[in-house]
């Protein structure tokens, strides 16, 4: 039931402090700096010596996979490739028994993802599933896995399942780091303590709902939107753009901010809202130069910034603050305002947010 909310999507966005808490339950011990993932523990030894990981998925799940690539490479120092399952299955992929494939799927029923798993299995790879629906088809054909435990997701556009997927991938990155010894225990204690506080920080982001609705009101008639971010802000930008196009039918693109000058900059004029992930992290100064490039062409800039930011705030049209956190957790926090922005734009445009045209909750055809 929707309870006090007008739509399942809004309810599910607001459930995220709880769904992420459920996803971490029993899996992290911040005091000890330990991650336990019962579903893949038989493979702990394999992960210790792993040379390559391939992540597959479609749509939003593929975006979660991109965040996983950053996290696993950064913390566990294992090379990762992320592939659309629909492409992977048709191109005779080079894969062997040495590889681990992580298949991500909210529904656990996506036909392209299932077919890609079968191919990887034939070639002898070990397959982990990261699924939300318990007992769905993908968990039954994988060797092992980690459920996201986000609870049933009714809105067709994925929200809480995405942040739970990102949470699981964060845990997998830390788990592999723990096996391989690429993260000092003291560092892991710090990271897990922060992760444990992410649900409260998401609650604080949700408190910006009215502000985000006001921003939506001012850009709702735009026919195009650009979403830009760097590092792990890039998959967040892709996901923000996908949410907007799915439910509001506004054309939107996500790009790495640095790629803007190689093409999309030609689109910028005074009608074009550009949404930046501009939090205080390693790419902050670079993102500020990208914002200046957009402002010089009269684009409308909406920036997701770190709480207390003054530098970006005085430059741009609209700012949405998110709490400060280690860069590892940027995708979990920065995604929330983009989900709300897409939601309000769609509602203001009179769209059916829970059941967008032409889309189905699980895509069981190729
Ligand atoms: C986006 C969305 C789709 C799904 C995609 C994969 O909001 O819902 O892009 O993410 O169809 O679905 P699953 O994760 O069920 O395999």
Automatic annotation (TrEMBL):
Keywords: Aminotransferase, Cytoplasm, Glutamine amidotransferase, Repeat, Transferase. Its main location: cytoplasm. Its EC number is 2.6.1.16. It catalyses: D-fructose 6-phosphate + L-glutamine = D-glucosamine 6-phosphate + L-glutamate. It comes from the Bacteria. Catalyzes the first step in hexosamine metabolism, converting fructose-6P into glucosamine-6P using glutamine as a nitrogen source. This is Glutamine--fructose-6-phosphate aminotransferase [isomerizing]. It comes from Mucilaginibacter xinganensis.
């Amino acid at each position: 039931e929707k309870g006090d909310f007008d739509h399942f999507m809004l309810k599910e966005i607001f459930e995220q402090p709880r769904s992420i808490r459920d996803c971490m339950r029993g899996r992290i011990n911040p005091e000890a700096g330990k991650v336990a993932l019962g579903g893949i523990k038989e493979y702990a030894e394999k992960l210790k010596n792993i040379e390559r990981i391939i992540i597959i998925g479609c749509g939003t799940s593929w975006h979660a996979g991109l965040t996983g690539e950053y996290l696993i490479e950064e913390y566990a120092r294992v090379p990762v490739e992320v592939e659309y399952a629909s492409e992977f299955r048709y191109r005779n992929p080079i894969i062997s028994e040495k590889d681990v494939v992580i298949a991500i799927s909210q529904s656990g029923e996506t036909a392209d993802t299932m077919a890609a798993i079968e191919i990887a299995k034939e070639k002898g790879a070990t397959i982990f599933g990261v699924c939300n629906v318990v007992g769905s088809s993908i968990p039954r054909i994988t060797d092992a896995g980690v459920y996201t435990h986000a609870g049933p997701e009714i809105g067709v556009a994925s929200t809480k399942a995405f942040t739970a997927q990102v949470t699981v991938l964060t845990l997998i990155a830390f788990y592999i780091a723990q096996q391989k010894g690429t993260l000092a225990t003291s560092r892991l204690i710090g990271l897990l303590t922060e992760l444990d506080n992410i649900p409260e920080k998401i609650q604080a982001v949700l408190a910006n709902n009215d502000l985000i609705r006001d921003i939506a009101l001012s850009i709702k008639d735009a026919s195009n939107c650009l979403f830009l971010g760097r590092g792990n802000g890039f998959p967040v930008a892709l996901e923000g753009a996908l949410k907007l196009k799915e439910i509001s039918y506004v054309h939107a693109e996500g790009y790495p901010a640095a790629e803007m000058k190689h093409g999309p900059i030609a689109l910028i004029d005074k009608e074009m809202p550009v949404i930046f992930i501009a939090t205080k992290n390693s790419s902050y100064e670079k993102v500020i130069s990208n914002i200046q490039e957009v402002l010089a062409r009269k684009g409308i800039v909406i920036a997701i910034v770190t709480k207390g930011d003054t530098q970006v705030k005085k430059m741009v049209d609209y700012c949405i603050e998110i709490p400060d956190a280690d860069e590892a957790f940027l995708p979990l926090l920065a995604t929330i305002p983009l989900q709300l922005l897409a939601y309000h734009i769609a509602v203001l445009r009179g769209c059916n947010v829970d059941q967008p045209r032409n889309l189905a909750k699980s895509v069981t055809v190729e």
